[in-house]
């Protein structure tokens, strides 16, 4: 059954955990949460809390002049942990630049992630190790890549039967924001992926803002309504509800994997903080709006549920806070210890094969720099 | 050895690529059933199937962007942009994504995508169908740019482009598609990233590429009748540029004319002039002269012959050079 075809229409976001921590039954999605036991629930909370602590540490590092920039994700932890935990290690993820929580679910090291923002790498981590692509700063540019990657998977999986697809089929999850939904490449990507039935899950975190521009400037209708125009199922989900996000993303991945084509997910969430450390939200949005979203914080919601069902006790939170502080200290230490690669290294990475201009300019650069060493000016 | 048009030589080259590399695939607008608007991919979908010769949806950013994604998964896509003037919807994908992926990943990822673009004028067409945007791409590090001027190079250079681990833009001189030439399918042509002296001479050098190589050769022949011995270099690779071959020639001849259809201002002729004045200043008997297009949108076709470099313009430039 296609979710869009049920009474849970696109206008009503799928919700499993209410903001006050009550678990609702769901006709379709309960089946996608069967394995969620207490351990997993604690794990989700832990993931979200660690991500938030990392985000806080990175923000502090930027404030202290140790990072060029930081892109905080506070408020979007459930959308990211829920969707990331729905993936298989062999699925490939195309993030934007804010998916630190998804990165955690892919075992990308938080420390490594800071290399980009510390200005010592153009990427930071090895995308091949965790099937988690580099961040893409050009909005929506990663979406055609996701379509192409999905088309490539379809070619590899040509002729597989349903059983094999379900068991071994790979899929792609492509993240983007509400602002990026307007970019032409979003549209082209969706046309390509749908025309070729590529196994791509489009995961839009609608955090209501594109820097200073509110969502209504991007679209007159919920984005999920656009899905039908491309011929794919669209699911709107409460993006601050980790269980709902997990369930719908699992459904979407199953659909995509089975060869039925892409799925669009719009996760309603809210960027609780600034767009980046260079931003000042007081210039464009109301504190009343922020106050209205504050109680919808995904961590509060899960904490309420966990406490009310006696799945956690105070000791859990105490230990978690300790672990998080320990993680943050390690990340800080690592970030400060990263060596700055010499510019000479950048020459080597422009082309995969030998290139005469690169060689000539590198030789000149080395000779020029060596001149300073000889004259002792750097001493 | 067989005689083929330049277009058919590319078709044969693509056929070889598809045959020898099962990760290679073609994608573009109308390239499958129709075989492309210039029929360069004619017959290849029948031979290799619609999953390897793909009629894409109509979107250049989607074509190049999805090719990047395929390359990230280990495929080797060769995509076609239908005309020079229609590459710009993909400009961001090419310059911000394709060109930089290797560098941004600190050398971990390679994206061996080939982008074929028919380019240049002289075909009496309407706007956007006659442009030479190569300098806009040559300015971007991470890309390689090549252009054949004859059938033999066309056959080999497309295969060399496909084998290259870097992204390559392969500019096809569309007004020479029907130019016939001998193709030696046994002996590979010179390295695609090297220039070739296609006529030797002692008095001056003309550097040309793509559609203007036959023009430069004809000008050299005309100059011979005036008693001047002109060396002609087919640049072949526009990024990197084989400055060694040009330098060596200029050290011998002392005079250099660079010609391209693209506007002179900001064109590759300026880069060549600057580099050669640095490398061979004392050998130069005259400033390096450029014969290119004017600083205007590509003109209406009825007057394009006055815009395009031709034999007379090259002879005029040679006269100016010899007058120093
Ligand atoms: C092509 C492009 N245009 C503009 C920018 C500058 N920019 C960076 S983030 C941003 C807003 C993006 O909003 P959204 O897609 O909703 O993502 P969010 O930042 O809210 O996660 C803008 C305009 C950019 N990075 N790329
Ligand atoms: Mg947003």
Describe the structure concisely for a colleague.
The complex is a heterodimer of chains A (379) and B (324). With 379 residues, chain A is an alpha/beta fold.
Explain this structure.
Chain A is an alpha/beta fold and 379 residues long. Chain A folds into two domains: 333 residues, Thiamin diphosphate (ThDP)-binding fold, Pyr/PP domains (Rossmann fold, 3-Layer(aba) Sandwich), CATH 3.40.50; 38 residues, no CATH class. Helix content of chain A is 48%, strand content 8%. In chain A, the strands form two sheets. In chain A, strands 1-2-3-7-6 form a five-stranded parallel β-sheet, with helices on both faces. Chain A has a two-stranded antiparallel sheet with strand order 4-5. The longest helix of chain A has 26 residues. The N terminus of chain A is likely disordered. Chain B has 324 residues and is α/β, with parallel strands linked by helices. Chain B folds into two domains: 182 residues, Rossmann fold, CATH 3.40.50.970; 128 residues, Rossmann fold (3-Layer(aba) Sandwich), CATH 3.40.50.920. In chain B, 35% of the residues lie in helices and 20% in strands. In chain B, helix 3 runs parallel beside helix 4, helix 8 crosses helix 12 and helix 9 crosses helix 10. The longest helix of chain B is centred in the first third of the chain and has 15 residues. Chain B is globular and about 60 Å long. The relative contact order of chain B is 0.12. The site of magnesium ion has 6 residues of chain A, from strand 4. Chain B: Its EC number is 1.2.4.4. Chain B: It holds the Pfam family Transketolase_C. Chain B: Its cofactor is thiamine diphosphate.
**CA gyration radius of chain A, whole angstroms:** 22 Å
State the oligomer. heterodimer
Find the CATH topology of the largest domain in chain B. Rossmann fold
Distance between the termini of chain B: 45 Å
CATH architect. name of the largest domain in chain A: 3-Layer(aba) Sandwich
Separation of termini of chain A? 72 Å
What is the fourth-level CATH superfamily of the largest domain in chain B? Thiamin diphosphate (ThDP)-binding fold, Pyr/PP domains
Low-confidence stretches of chain B: none
Total helices of chain A: the number is 16
Small molecules (ligands, ions, cofactors) in the structure: thiamine diphosphate, magnesium ion
Order of strands, main sheet of chain A, comes to: 1-2-3-7-6
Give the count of structural domains of chain B.
Answer: 2
CATH H level, superfamily name of the largest domain in chain A: Thiamin diphosphate (ThDP)-binding fold, Pyr/PP domains
CATH topology of the largest domain in chain A: Rossmann fold
Tell me what portion of residues of chain A adopts beta-strand conformation. Answer: 5-15%
Q: Into which percent range does the helicity of residues of chain A fall?
A: 40-55%
Over all CA atoms, what is the radius of gyration of chain B? Answer: 19 Å
